[in-house]
Known about the structure:
Blueprint: E1 2-10, E2 16-20, E3 25-40, E4 43-52, E5 58-67, H1 74-81, H2 85-92, H3 95-100, H4 108-113, E6 122-127, E7 131-139
Antiparallel strand pairs: 1-7, 2-3, 3-4, 4-5, 6-7
Zinc ion is lined by residues 20, 22-23, 27, 52, 54-55, 57.
Amino acid sequence: xxxxxxxxxxxxxxxxxxxxxxCGKKTEYxxxxxxxxxxxxxxxxxxxxxxxxxxxxxxxxxxxSRINPKSIxxxxxxxxxxxxxxxxxxxxxxxxxxxxxxxxxxxxxxxHQKIDHHGKNQSTRRVGNFFMITIFxxxx
Length: 140
Ligand SMILES: [Zn+2]
């Protein structure tokens, strides 16, 4: 019996597949790495901005809607204001959040399809622009 362990690392956040009005078709929206914070009276709206890879139209993915700023830790809030890279990654990788806003991500499928199981004991390869896959094989 052969056991194959696969480790998938992201090289950059996966794109969101979304209908672009300007392009008139579904395109890849790429994470811009920027948050947008909008104050509405006492509340905040926070989005992560994506851009159509074809025409640069932007799409704001809602992270928080009408949230009381006091309910967010101040260092997190500061991270939204300063476009903190780790925070961007946290939300850009949150496929559950992205799915909740009705976007398809072509994440796991493409990765799994392209794995070659007949490789060597360990091999690392790049899949597209978004994944690095390391395959470890252990025979039992
Ligand atoms: Zn577009």
